[in-house]
């Protein structure tokens, strides 16, 4: 006996009935107009207008500035600090996206059960996602400090030599930051995967089990393919959030030691608001926007294509 | 995206118009913004209270914003965005975001040159920080002293004598370490505090032999990397680290972690402006503080920073408000500076302060040859000082060599 692995009919996108009157279909668009207008005028128009500062040497104060062409972009490409920040951003993003999604999915699988305390446990794991990144980063900063709980714990189990100044250690600082960000993002991906899991009919897994498929095969052949829409959302969201990471880095390390944890966002903030280089900072913001757009659109296209294949 | 408040910019080479401050008036309302000092009560609030008692027909509405980028960007936005306060705090010199001379260049401050009460107000050694093109753009209201401030009780308990030379300091560091304490608290993750420690060393190593370093650096006759004084300054930090002068984890510490180490006596001293006395005493009212100069190579070659390093300015909008001029006149010449000094621990513009914590500085403060303004105040942009602060952290973690730090500072200088 074989099991046909197809998504249930309910999971397919429903199309509106062909005979539905056109007037009703356009009605929601009219209701969208005020919100869209507000979004475009308050967000996109100023953003596009502000982009021209990337081609100037404006210091954020003077009424006089010069057009410098692509000089800011050339300085970013040639600048050691900005290059390091780009590498740091990518390493942090890849680490966080993989770890947060693997952990989130694992937790979702574990909590998608009938245990009595599941709602409490879900809330506990989801809590970091709704807490202020700054507040939680300051708590972690205390945990990581040289006389903090982590080093005390290591000492208590005889690992004193492992103790260090985690947030100023050139090797470990970026991993310490990654731990905090993963801890904060895992709850969000867990909830997305849980939602996806709950939309998968239990009958499919039961039928596969009756056919003799083991837990791993059921997960690989049934659960994972049917989780594709949730995976797309979770991966895209965590990628966008991880590439733009700012609060946690500022609160934990300020980008240090000597740029080891600096990200494109923190360098952009520093250059613009601490050093007054608004032209350079705007150019960096454009590059960050480009990186996030490219990464998320590519990821979205690949994942959507995978979803279509599964259907 | 950084669209921000950049409106009004232009590429024309227009000259900023200059407003002259109005003559002092006896009534009116003055709006003021300043950075929060960390002292309780807020020292400027005490000055305002004292001013309003003397001038009951003038009301000052003050707003205190968090120190650092929050204040700097709020000030710049308000000055550029048409929501100007009449009076605001500025840093003398031209290198930082709130620097007086940058704001003057942008036409955002009123010219105070014609006010007769400002004559002789600015010290000769601080003139280039307040004047540009022969015009006065702000007034000082205190004298900032940067010193090695000791926890008197902890120092006495340790039995360590106040070091008078760098060699003695390094020896004292080793002694303190053996006792389970550290000689110096350092907030190595704070660019400001780490930079101040390095700057205090430069007062001894750079200004002793190269008193005109800044002007020569501006003219391109020298560089940080070529300066023997700066080479010695950065090497001294490495030597101090090796001698165990700083607390464990200093490279990751911020001011809220380092300051309590001094208060609790775990660290014997902290290099800070004496204006932080108020904040330290706020943590522990019984704290016995003793300020001394950070020792140089020799006792005779030891220098001290003491200069008019805080300013109040009148905005272009406030130029029409005579009450704002009256307030500045009171702060600088009417006794406001003394009220401010008593709350903070900084010195008033004339004379000294009756505070036993400052007794260790009385000798050197009277010796003009060994007293300088902060070396970083005339630097052309904030990035140079930022690189110095980061460099201290890099020296402590071993990521940078002294030569790397100086090279970064030279590169930052070019970004002006």
UniProtKB/TrEMBL annotation, chain A:
Q: Which residues cross the membrane?
A: 25-45, 90-111, 123-143, 172-194, 226-246, 278-303
Q: Which domain of life is it from?
A: Bacteria
One GO biological process term: transmembrane transport
Ranges for domain ABC transmembrane type-1 come to 86-299
Is-annotated flag, keyword Transport? yes
Which segments carry the region annotation Disordered? 1-22
SUPFAM superfamilies referenced in this protein's UniProt entry, alphabetically: MetI-like
The record's annotation in Gene3D superfamilies points to: MetI-like
Intracellular or extracellular location(s)? Cell membrane
* One cellular-component annotation, GO: plasma membrane
Q: How does it sit in the membrane?
A: Multi-pass membrane protein
Keyword set for this entry? Answer: Cell membrane, Membrane, Transmembrane, Transmembrane helix, Transport
Tell me the protein family, please. Answer: Belongs to the binding-protein-dependent transport system permease family.
* Protein name listed in UniProt: Sugar ABC transporter permease
Q: What is the lineage of its organism?
A: Bacteria, Bacillati, Actinomycetota, Actinomycetes, Kitasatosporales
């Amino acid at each position: 006996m074989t099991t046909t692995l197809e998504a249930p009919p309910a999971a397919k996108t429903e199309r509106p009935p062909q005979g539905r009157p056109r007037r009703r279909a356009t009605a929601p668009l009219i209701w969208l107009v005020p919100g869209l207008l507000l979004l475009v005028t308050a967000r996109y128009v100023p953003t596009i207008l502000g982009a021209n500062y990337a081609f100037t040497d404006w210091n954020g104060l003077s009424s006089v500035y010069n057009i410098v062409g692509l000089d800011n972009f050339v300085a970013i490409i040639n600048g050691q600090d900005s290059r390091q920040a780009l590498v740091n951003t990518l390493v942090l993003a890849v680490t966080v996206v993989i770890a947060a999604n693997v952990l989130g999915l694992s937790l979702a699988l574990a909590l998608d059960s009938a245990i009595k305390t599941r709602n409490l446990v879900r809330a506990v794991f989801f809590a970091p996602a709704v807490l202020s990144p700054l507040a939680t980063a300051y708590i972690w900063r205390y945990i990581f400090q040289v006389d903090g709980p982590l080093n005390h714990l290591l000492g208590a189990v005889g690992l004193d030599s492992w103790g260090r100044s985690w947030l100023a250690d050139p090797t470990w600082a970026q991993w310490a930051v990654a731990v905090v960000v993963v801890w904060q993002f895992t709850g969000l991906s867990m909830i997305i995967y849980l939602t996806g899991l709950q939309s998968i009919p239990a009958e499919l897994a039961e039928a596969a089990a009756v056919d003799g498929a083991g837990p791993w095969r059921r997960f690989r052949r049934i659960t994972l393919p049917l989780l594709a829409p949730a995976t797309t959302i979770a991966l895209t969201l965590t990628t966008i959030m991880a590439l733009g990471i700012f609060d946690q880095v500022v609160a934990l390390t300020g980008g240090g030691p000597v740029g080891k944890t600096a990200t494109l966002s923190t360098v952009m903030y520093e250059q613009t608001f601490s050093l007054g280089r608004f032209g350079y900072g705007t150019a960096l913001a454009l590059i960050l926007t480009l990186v996030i757009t490219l990464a998320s659109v590519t990821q979205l296209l690949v994942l959507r294509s995978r979803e279509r294949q599964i259907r | 995206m950084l669209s921000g408040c950049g409106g009004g910019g232009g590429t024309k080479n227009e000259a900023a118009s200059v407003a002259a401050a109005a003559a002092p008036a006896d009534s009116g309302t003055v709006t003021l913004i300043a950075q929060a000092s960390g002292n309780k009560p807020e020292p400027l609030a005490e000055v305002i209270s004292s001013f309003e008692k003397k001038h009951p027909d003038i009301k000052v509405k003050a707003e205190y914003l968090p120190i650092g980028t929050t204040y700097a960007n709020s000030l710049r936005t308000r000055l550029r965005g048409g929501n100007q306060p009449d009076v605001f705090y500025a840093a003398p010199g031209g290198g930082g975001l709130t620097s007086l001379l940058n704001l003057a260049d942008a036409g955002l401050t009123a010219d105070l040159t014609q006010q007769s009460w400002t004559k002789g107000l600015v010290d000769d050694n601080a003139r280039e920080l307040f004047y540009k093109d022969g015009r006065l753009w702000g007034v000082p209201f205190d004298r900032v002293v940067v010193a090695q401030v000791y926890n008197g009780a902890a120092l006495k308990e340790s039995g360590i004598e106040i070091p008078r030379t760098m060699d003695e300091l390094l020896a004292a560091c080793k002694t303190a370490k053996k006792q389970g304490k550290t000689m110096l608290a350092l907030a190595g993750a704070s660019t400001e505090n780490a930079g101040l420690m390095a700057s205090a060393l430069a007062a001894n190593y750079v200004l002793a032999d190269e008193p005109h370093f800044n002007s020569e650096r501006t003219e391109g006759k020298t560089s940080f990397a070529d300066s023997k004084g700066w080479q010695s300054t950065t090497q001294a930090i490495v030597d101090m680290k090796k001698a165990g002068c700083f607390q464990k984890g200093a490279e990751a510490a911020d001011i809220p972690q380092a300051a309590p180490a001094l208060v609790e006596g775990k660290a014997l001293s902290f290099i800070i402006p004496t204006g932080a006395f108020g904040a330290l005493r706020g943590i522990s009212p019984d704290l016995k503080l003793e300020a001394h100069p950070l020792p140089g190579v020799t006792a005779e070659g030891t220098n001290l920073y003491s200069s008019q390093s805080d300013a109040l300015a009148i905005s272009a909008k406030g130029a029409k408000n005579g009450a704002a001029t009256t307030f500045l006149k009171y702060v600088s010449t009417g006794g406001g500076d003394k009220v401010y000094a008593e709350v903070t621990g900084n010195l008033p513009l004339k004379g000294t302060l009756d505070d036993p914590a400052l007794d260790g500085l009385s000798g050197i403060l009277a010796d003009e040859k060994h007293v300088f303004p902060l070396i970083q105040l005339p630097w052309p942009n904030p990035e140079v000082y930022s690189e110095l602060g980061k460099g201290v952290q890099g020296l402590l973690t071993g990521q940078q060599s002294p030569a790397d730090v100086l090279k970064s500072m030279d590169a930052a200088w070019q970004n002006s």
